[in-house]
Amino acid sequence: MKILNPDNLRVPTEPGKTPCLLGNRCRDCGIVVFPKMPVCPSCHTNGAMVEVEIGRTGKLYSHTISHFAPAGFTAPAFQIFVDLPEGPRIFSLVGAGLPVERGVLEDGMEMQLVVEPLADTPEHRDELTYKFVPANGART
After folding, report:
1. Do 61 and 130 fall into the same domain?
2. Same structural domain for residues 15 and 38?
3. Which of 21, 42, 103, 131 could form a disulfide with 95 if both were Cys (CB 3.0 to 4.6 A apart)?
């Protein structure tokens, strides 16, 4: 298996270490962004962005159920926006094992990062990416 975008995701091999997203923090104004950018989108400083580990947890901002999917993906599937404690709001899919139905997710709930195959299809089964799941472990 390979990480779909290794510039955005760190999967440590050391025991006790957890996966994280890789973003940037501006040395000048302090804004944190994901994905990484060479120029700060807030103060427009070039060369001030430094890599930081982010996104191990977050809070569900909004979610929807997609009933249609592009080739290589399955539907229905959750699509979500997660507010990271470091600042950015990011788009994500939801980890496998959660029934895709109304009432399973609630905006405002705590979420945690997991690393899973992009999709359970032959096209994407060997590509790992980040997803989020409820932090309370509510997986079936």
Report:
1. yes
2. yes
3. 131
Closest CA to 110 of 80, 140, 130: 80
- Kindly list the distances between the CA atom of residue 88 and the CA atoms of 73, 91, 113, in Å, as whole numbers in the listed order: 26, 10, 14
User: In this structure, what token pair is assigned to residue 47?
Assistant: 């060369």
Domain that holds residue 87: 57-134
Calculate mean pLDDT across residues 130-137: 90
- Same domain? For 121 and 70 the reply is yes
CB count within 10 Å of CB 79 equals 13
95-116 in b/e form (b: 16+ CB < 10 A) is: beebeeeeeebeeeeebbbbbb
Q: Do 41 and 71 fall into the same domain? A: no
Does residue 12 fall inside a structural domain?
Answer: yes
Does residue 123 surpass a pLDDT of 90? Answer: no
pLDDT(138) > 60: no
Give the closest residue to 39 by CA, choosing from 53, 26, 30, 51.
26
CB atoms within 10 A of CB 49: 22
